[in-house]
Q: What sequence folds into this?
């Protein structure tokens, strides 16, 4: 059961990071960009849950770390995609 909580925390962290980025950009909401963040958040959730599958106890600190990791995966994925697009397009 703890694996589900870890995956959910990482997923929610990624979604919140995506929404915060959109709010900061002051652009209109773009579903296509948001769905990319959802996919990255799902990947983060699964990856982090697999890594945390080997822990015995689940604490609030573990959930917080998963949340931060999910946010980090989304931000890093967004930055990497932007850098690649800038290199290819420019």
A:
């Amino acid at each position: 059961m703890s694996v589900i909580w870890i995956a959910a925390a990482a997923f929610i962290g990624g979604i919140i990071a995506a929404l915060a980025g959109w709010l900061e950009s002051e652009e209109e909401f773009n579903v296509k960009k948001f769905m990319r963040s959802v996919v990255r958040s799902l990947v983060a959730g699964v990856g982090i849950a697999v890594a945390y599958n080997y822990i015995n106890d689940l604490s609030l600190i573990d959930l917080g770390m998963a949340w931060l990791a999910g946010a980090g995966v989304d931000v890093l994925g967004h930055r990497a995609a932007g850098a690649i697009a800038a290199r290819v397009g420019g």
